[in-house]
Amino acid sequence: MSIKLFDSELNVMNILWKFGDTTAKKISEILNKEIGWNVNTTYTIIKKCIKKGAISRYEPNFMCHAEVTRQEVQQAELTVFMDKLFDGAADKLFAALIDTKDMSRDEIQRMKDMVNNLK
Description:
mainly alpha
């Protein structure tokens, strides 16, 4: 499933991915504390996510359920990013990552292990 989610929608999704099914009221309380959103803003964003199919709603208490996984969204976003900036080439993305980030020995070893374990 490929759904384009905006940053505001990802704020809501991150709560559902972290806590599982959560009431809209609780999501609103968390986002009020974290980023200062009011109830109306949160409910508007939740409704947008429902319309896109990223969230389903059930009763009682306007319970929200994530219909897409974090991994699905990450994969979709990564594909768009690679297509846009690296001509869809994973090796170009990988080379850019290595060139621009000082990596610890542990990070380097984990990347080597991932490459060595490719099928």
